[in-house]
């Protein structure tokens, strides 16, 4: 669901290393006011014997800069599949809202991501990896919130959870499963339906395609034609031509190598659709403003479609222009998530999650989308996952555990989605009750609303954030009133 | 929380062996219409690697005798700590209600109890025992309901869960955590607050005492005086006198032996208070009608208090009059539940649950109750549990996981309690909203309302069952209407 390019991982590592070695006063200023801390967390919430009563160090970021102590609400970001700093630095709306509503802000890192590795670098072995589940993550957050509230003398402070993408799913689940701990949830771009198996395997790449088509129908045609030309070269086994036109570091030598190249190329379009923000960003890679528009301009520039396709992929993989050739196996790794798992440790953890609880059987078919047909069936997933992780996915489980689309008993959840985001139609698009509110952000990409204000923001996201602020403030007041009655 | 005497276990085993070897037509008639079946259940819902993707055979009883096929509701008993036949044969209200409301009835056996042993007789070793948790049990029921509904062409049939005692806790939790699967819950005598650590460690034995006191204040005094006389003999180390007066099979020889005897005696009063039904029963042992009254009559018959105490204990332990002596270590086993764990495999499983998630740190103190002071602190529990099961209890966990007393976001739960039941004040006694309804059964013992109608029933329980029937019927209709809107 998320991919962090090698570039970003390195940049972030350098940044964090700097931060960690900085003197305290500098730490504060460099870290946007966050303190980085570690919480002693239960290793296995659902088994008292498996690994003894072990614990691990779970990282979290905290700032009380805006907090009305022991009174203001707690805004808690339910970290998802990546380094928690990445989410903190790309979710400025939460601190802006904290400033308005005098809130304490906590960003909690998901177990098995970033520096919250229960078994260090050995966390991704079998069976160590097996304590990576959605349920463990939710239990982590519940225990952490409960204990931190006591430590911070904040037991009467209402808690609102925030999350984007898989983090948004976790925010929804927190409100469903732990409403005594969490008074409300802002779930931005959370595909809770598709990941529960309630969807259509062609939806995702169809919606990616629609973004490019909406810029210019010729853009879709050009991309299709380019992929078709690539296919023809592959049929002819003209691998040296494929290498030269795509500037590959190695000559492909098999159908598998071509499949890998197709995956790499498709992934570039996926990323540009998701991250189609109206200004340049450094989130999940370096991206220009309006990358879909940039891509279509590139695709439609002259008649060398294969060269255009290479340059379009370069927007994502070669933003700096420093790469001399594309290493298709290091820039993109095929995994149990056809929308991409990213690279490095985080990608292994996400691959495991896509192999167990989270359904991501998306396919491109070249009919409803502009990409080569790349089937990924439940059977393909099973074969891959049993080989890679010695697990069999349970496609029905997430729906059983987290209610699927039967949410009528829930309350106080905002489902925000941007209509440019290919994840949007895997989520809740219509309000279900007065407190299960769907917000559509016209012209918005992947959880644009969680980002800090920017002068290039469309009016839709400004309005969305205003609605979100009002609802959250209302939930906080209601929760406070309920607590007062109890006292 | 429940104890099954050796006597009942044997009787039940004989009964079940008969049933299993019986020809089908006899099976139906002998089994109150239930078919006994086994469901292939996931071994570990929360870990995809721990024991591979193993399964086990989970037993359930089912009858469609009253069911309006593919339309009527499903009444699902969330089995608790014992053989599922015991609950089915002592919860006649559910089939009576099924007959009225054309429901399918299922009694599901809790993992690690009865014949639902994931690892057979080896289930109680470490680490095999570690898959015994409340969360696994709830996941079992959720998966079972989902799959059976498909098998039985019953996907549109609303499900109501029923449970008594710990089974009632599970029913509540099902509605809290899986409301998309379960439309409502009747939780009879479910101590969801005390077991979550929201209570007072002296409550239980104080309420046992109150039952006897309410028959006659002299009854309390007589019991206290008898225990005091026993204490004096113990101080004098007059063990042979203790043996003779209590007809023990072995002579006590230590303070520990006397503690064990005190535990055995206190347990007899606990059982009589819990099972103080207005007619004789064969549930958790053989019990006369109104056992508390019988006990007080026995205690106040003449002046030999120690003999009276022995005879009172005999009501529970020697109902048939066949025992020549009391073997204090085989009739009662001390464990992590001071209200008793029972005997045999089931008691081991319950001990493990009391050592991990379920808080049962009840103490008698000889001030607010009539029993000898028998402290059982959190520290005592930790020491015992780490030695017995290599686990450390997590006293805060149940409250975090199942909301404690913060239930305002829940709906469609009946909390019924009888005011004779020492478990009652560990549960919800006041209605919280119009759909979180507390029912008090005046003169009712432990989940009397779940038992089948009896001519000795007090008006209170007849009224309670009527209210329950109305609420359940209302929930079913509401759920059906909601489903119709979706179709």
From TrEMBL, chains A, B:
Localization per record: Cytoplasmic vesicle; Lysosome; Secreted
InterPro entries assigned: AB_hydrolase_fold (IPR029058), Peptidase_S28 (IPR008758), Ser_carbopepase_S28_SKS (IPR042269)
Keywords noted in UniProt: Cytoplasmic vesicle, Glycoprotein, Hydrolase, Lysosome, Protease, Secreted, Serine protease, Signal, Zymogen
Record-linked Pfam families: Peptidase_S28
Biological process terms in GO annotation: proteolysis
Primary site of residence: cytoplasm
Its EC number(s): 3.4.14.2
GO molecular function, one term: dipeptidyl-peptidase activity
Source organism superkingdom: Eukaryota
Recorded GO CC terms: cytoplasmic vesicle; extracellular region; lysosome
Swiss-Prot/TrEMBL catalytic activity: Release of an N-terminal dipeptide, Xaa-Yaa-|-, preferentially when Yaa is Ala or Pro. Substrates are oligopeptides, preferentially tripeptides
Key word Endoplasmic reticulum present: no
Signal peptide (residue range): 1-21
Job of this protein: Plays an important role in the degradation of some oligopeptides.
Homology family: Belongs to the peptidase S28 family.
Quaternary structure (record): Homodimer.
Name of the protein this chain belongs to: Dipeptidyl peptidase 2
Gene this protein is translated from: dpp7
